[in-house]
């Protein structure tokens, strides 16, 4: 058996040879910490820190209202949205950056139900992220539809001509299992239903190709792999063919000419109509700058790097953690495994706490999950080894 | 006739004797500028600058996910909401800080319609802030109700037993006219309707006494007189007697235990159920800190100071601006005039631009309005004189 020092040295060597290793320098990571929770809250980037400081000290303090009239704020949201569009594989103008994922899902589902009139059912997924299920259930109830919650693998089988909308996550927040984005979407379309996707746990970790998938609408989160900061603005994708889709919240920033203060609501073209109130400038500034960490690198290359990271953790799990009573709650097949790995142990809560005390930061997810995000922009192979080694030591 | 220098000197003397003059030192105002647009975008406070820097450099960069688990973020929104509650005259726990004014109005109106079942009409106000009218019209349509837009003074007369909700602004965004908050609310209640108020242009400028007024729900903006920063989070007040009011957007931060990831939606007690997605931490941090600028001063004292400022501008208007073709588009009676003054002139757009070029910053509001916010926290009498003098000079 190879010792941990040898395993670490091999990982350090692979890290040193990594052609993408320079990307980590874009992050302002604390020294000595293996931060494996970027799927929950992405770390600060140097770009975001500089941009927020400039926004506060210059644009707000000195520019004041002029930063709306003549400055960079008026189109900050669409400029940010277009950066997200590239990352999720959407054409410019098809993504709005606004509000939270929760609010955007509310908007997307109302729009989708309106695009499938006369149908009586919505299909969502058992165990999907709670807020998604809460919002889906509520929109369905408010529109007079019923909701069927089915296991993720049974969605296609649950569809019929009475289904208006399928609402589900692309990557499961617990297991990291990747849903069949294009396949489920095609199955939905085959019965005349729409597919609305939550990309929170996939955007920035893997190529999504949301437009190519045929998806109707999608929402996602700015503060996970996109590193936009705590509670960063979220986004909403609407397929260009749904140019007439209507938001249930027609706010002035979704108006075609907000500062005309017009009598009647005239929605902006494209996704921008799904903006509602005033752009949250501080948060959007941080997100816009943070997205520059993806400059010059393709999602395919990041995906390969991410798959190598999660495969390395699964390999270490097999040899060193499974014998100590740890289980694997993520798929073995890296092709259907997203950017994080969920391990299981009855003492998960306490183990996550002990790891964090030692500088290895992951997430506890009830009831027994240890969740580790291996962000392809900055997580190193050596950090993966450190995690496995320290977890094994805690259990030994 | 007194010359402008004498008028200025008298104002400077009054400023020097002002027992509230220390409040201005809390603001990070640019030198040489008379910023009279705080009703559109409040200026930076030193407290907000320090708090945002600490949030980015320490809480986010170093604390990372721990700033949720052990840090100050989890209850940042309710702590901020309780600061707003004091300013608008609401009990602790009856205000939620979240989302934009637009989204909050959507939530408040849906909740209000649900509290008045079986009724078929909503009453709103002609010329009210566009996004309010757009959202009101849309909620009404989506709930199968019709909307009557009536002049602000005719709202009480438009009420009958078929009205579910009255939706209107407390202070008009153009004229600054203060609506009869308690009177209209009582008239609504007399026919069994609910009153939903937008406090965007009154909160922080005058005492509102929202709870004492009997209002059912209210929303407002964090970035005007509250100085929370561009696109700051907004708020939603719900009268404690409406504890069972339901938000149409049941998100995880409105859940009674968000991090339990529960199967069913269980709304938090009080106003917090009207939170939806994750707290936007950067913006809420700025707003929370900015609200400390109101520490140690009552809204009654600020109101007296604000009334003196607007009365001074109206006096100067009468003597020096009316003869040059300027009109007064705000009420003469300071008792029904909010924190800003709207002047009128056919060349308003160009005059506002020329004033700004000279360091006197106001707002142009189509078609012919020059709008000046005289924020009682920091606007000085000397700035009011400077405005009148420079406007007179431009017109002479």
Q: Could you list some keywords that capture this structure?
A:
396 residues; alpha/beta; seven-stranded mixed beta sheet
Q: What does this 3D model show about the protein?
A:
By secondary structure, the first copy, chain A, is of the alpha/beta class. Chain A is 37% helix and 13% strand. In chain A, the strands form three sheets. Chain A has a seven-stranded mixed beta sheet, sandwiched between helices. The two termini of chain A are 16 Å apart. The model of chain A has no long low-confidence stretch (mean pLDDT 96). The interface between A and B is large, with 73 and 73 residues.
Task: Detail the topology: elements first, then pairings.
The structure is a homodimer of 396-residue chains.
Chain A: H1 4-16, E1 34-35, H2 46-63, H3 66-69, H4 76-88, E2 95-97, H5 101-115, E3 121-125, H6 130-142, E4 146-150, E5 163-169, H7 181-190, E6 194-198, H8 210-213, E7 217-220, E8 235-238, H9 281-290, H10 299-321, E9 327-328, E10 340-344, H11 348-357, E11 360-361, E12 363-365, E13 369-373, H12 381-395
Helix pairs in contact in A: 1-12, 2-9, 4-9, 5-6, 10-12
Summarize this entry quickly:
2 copies of one chain form a homodimer. With 396 residues, chain A is α/β, with parallel strands linked by helices. In chain A, 37% of the residues lie in helices and 13% in strands.
Give the H and E element order of chain A. HEHHHEHEHEEHEHEEHHEEHEEEH
Strand tally of chain A, please?
A: 13
Rounded to the nearest angstrom, the radius of gyration of chain A is 22 Å
Distance between the termini of chain A: 16 Å
The largest beta-sheet of chain A arranges its strands as 2-8-7-6-5-3-4
Question: Helix tally of chain A?
Answer: 12
* Strand proportion of chain A: 5-15%
How is the quaternary structure best described?
Answer: homodimer
- Described by the principal axes of the CA atoms, the overall outline of chain A is globular
Mean pLDDT of chain A: 96
Largest sheet of chain A: 7 strands, mixed
- SS-based class of chain A: alpha/beta
Largest protein-protein interface:
A-B, 73 and 73 residues
Helix content of chain A: 25-40%
Q: Can you tell me the residue ranges of chain A where pLDDT is under 50 for at least 5 consecutive residues?
A: none
């Amino acid at each position: 058996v190879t010792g941990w020092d040898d395993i670490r040295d091999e990982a350090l060597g692979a890290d040193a040879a990594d052609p993408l290793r320079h990307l980590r320098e874009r992050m302002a990571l604390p020294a000595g910490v293996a931060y494996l929770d970027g799927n929950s809250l992405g770390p600060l980037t140097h770009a975001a820190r500089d941009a927020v400081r400039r926004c506060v000290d210059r644009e707000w303090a000195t520019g004041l209202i002029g930063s709306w009239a003549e400055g960079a704020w008026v189109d900050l949201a669409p400029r940010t949205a277009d950066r997200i569009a590239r990352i999720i594989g959407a054409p410019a103008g098809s993504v709005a950056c606004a509000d939270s994922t929760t609010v955007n899902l509310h908007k997307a589902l109302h729009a989708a139900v309106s695009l499938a009139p006369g149908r009586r059912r919505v299909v969502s997924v058992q165990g999907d992220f709670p807020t998604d299920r809460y919002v889906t259930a509520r929109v369905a109830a408010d529109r007079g539809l019923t909701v069927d919650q089915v296991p993720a693998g049974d969605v296609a089988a649950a569809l019929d001509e009475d289904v208006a909308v399928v609402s589900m996550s692309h990557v499961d927040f617990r297991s990291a299992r990747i849903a069949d984005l294009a396949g489920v979407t095609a199955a939905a379309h085959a019965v005349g239903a729409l597919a609305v996707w939550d990309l929170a746990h996939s955007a920035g970790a893997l190529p999504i190709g949301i437009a190519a998938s045929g998806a109707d609408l999608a929402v996602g989160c700015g503060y996970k792999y996109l590193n936009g900061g705590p509670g960063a603005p979220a986004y909403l994708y609407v397929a260009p063919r749904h140019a007439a889709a209507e938001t249930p919240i027609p706010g002035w920033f979704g108006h075609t000419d907000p500062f005309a203060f017009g009598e009647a609501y005239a929605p902006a073209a494209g996704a921008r109509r799904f903006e509602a109130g005033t752009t949250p400038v501080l948060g959007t500034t941080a997100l816009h700058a943070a997205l520059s960490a993806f400059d010059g690198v393709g999602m395919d290359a990041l995906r390969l790097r991410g798959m190598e990271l999660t495969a390395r953790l699964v390999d270490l799990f097999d040899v060193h953690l499974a014998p100590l009573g740890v289980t694997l709650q993520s798929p073995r097949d890296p092709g259907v495994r997203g950017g994080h790995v969920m391990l299981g142990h009855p003492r998960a809560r306490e183990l996550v706490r002990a790891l964090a005390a030692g500088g290895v930061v992951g997430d506890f997810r009830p009831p027994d999950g240890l969740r580790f995000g291996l962000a392809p922009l900055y997580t190193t192979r050596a950090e993966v080894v450190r995690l496995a080694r320290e977890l094994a030591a805690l259990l030994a």
